[in-house]
Amino acid sequence: MVKVGIPRALLYYQYYPMWKTFFGELGAEVVVSPPTTQATLAVGSSRVVADTCLPVKVFCGHVLALVENCDYIFIPALRSVKSKIYNCSKFLGLPDMTRAVIPECPPILDMDIDINKGKRRLYQAIYKLGRPFSWNPFKVRRAALAAWQAHREYKELMINECLTPPQAIARISGAEMPSPNPNQPAIALVGHPYLLYDEMINHRLIHRLEQAGYRTLTPEMLTAEQLETAITRLTGKPYWTYEEEVVGSGGHYLESGVEGAIGVIAFGCGPDSLMMDMVQRQAIRLKTTPFMSLTLEEHSAEAGVVTRLEAFLDMIQRKKRRGAEVCV
Ligand code: SF4
């Protein structure tokens, strides 16, 4: 059976069930790289220039983890999935960058996704992607429809059950995954999924919040309408694809009555520094929800993240006790 590798990084958290269904329907076996470790980051970093952002370094490490184990690696170039809203440039050149820095990589199944070029181009790209597995266009079409259905169900599961992407993926795979307790106090996490759910690079942020007695609310638990309304309120018209995860979810959660909100960004990320600044300014304006911005980088020490988190949770507790005005 042909093996298709999927790196557990970047777009994995948003699209894995869809990709797995597509390749599975075409008779391929999908292999996912193991969770990130310090070694994954170290080998990934060794292939790119130092000022590359942390998530891309991690991505390279995951590709290297798959090199020996699969026949193809799937790396799409996701340019735009909404009209006139564009992705960060790192995603646009991802297949080419991977070929350049990891020459030993197996053949890359790349695919240009740009909704602005029309549906015809998108369908052509899907048929081209399926061709190594089947020359039958009807079979590829069936696989694409099943994949789209899987994606919709995945998104609905996260929204309806308040599950994070890793929890929803585990649930889809048949693992027991209890829904969070809605009576627990909630902290919102704002940021890209590849920062929020990679436990190595965020030093187990969600786990630490759970240990402290909080449930976490994340961008994937919000509907498209909730995200769009918050973006329109804060910035007017969105330009970046990931404005939803940062501005949309940040804007929404700051007014949702959560105990606090934590914005997670990657050091050296241009789009994030602008978008998170908007959320932070909104938090200062509103003065209703404590907000902390946490910047992750390759050398972030676990102790530093833990100290900041403890101080933030202390501030929330003090605010609750005194009912005082919020510090941001
Ligand atoms: S949005 Fe920022 S963190 Fe994400 S890939 Fe682009 S530069 Fe890196």
Give a verbal description of the structure.
The protein has 2 domains: 3-160, Rossmann fold; 181-322, Rossmann fold, CATH 3.40.50. It contains 14 helices and 10 strands. It has helices spanning 12-25, 38-45, 54-66, 89-92, 94-101, 119-130, 137-161, 165-172, 193-196, 205-211, 224-235, 243-254, 270-286, 302-322; strands spanning 3-6, 29-32, 72-74, 77-80, 108-109, 112-114, 186-190, 215-217, 260-266, 291-296. The protein has a 4-stranded parallel beta sheet with strand order 2-1-3-5, with helices on one face. Strands 8-7-9-10 form a 4-stranded parallel beta sheet, with helices on both faces. Helix 2 (38-45) crosses helix 3 and helix 11 packs across helix 12 (243-254). The radius of gyration is 20 Å and the shape is globular. The relative contact order is 0.11. Residues 53, 55-56, 88, 90, 192, 242, 266, 269, 271-272 line the site of iron/sulfur cluster (SF4).
Tell me the Rg in angstroms. 20 Å
Low-confidence segments, given as residue ranges, are none
Major beta sheet, strand line-up:
2-1-3-5
The general outline is globular
Q: Structural class per helix/strand content? A: alpha/beta
Residue-averaged pLDDT: 91
Biggest sheet details? 4 strands, parallel
Bound molecules: iron/sulfur cluster
Write a brief caption for the model.
The chain has helices at residues 12-25, 38-45, 54-66, 89-92, 94-101, 119-130, 137-161, 165-172, 193-196, 205-211, 224-235, 243-254, 270-286, 302-322; strands spanning 3-6, 29-32, 72-74, 77-80, 108-109, 112-114, 186-190, 215-217, 260-266, 291-296.
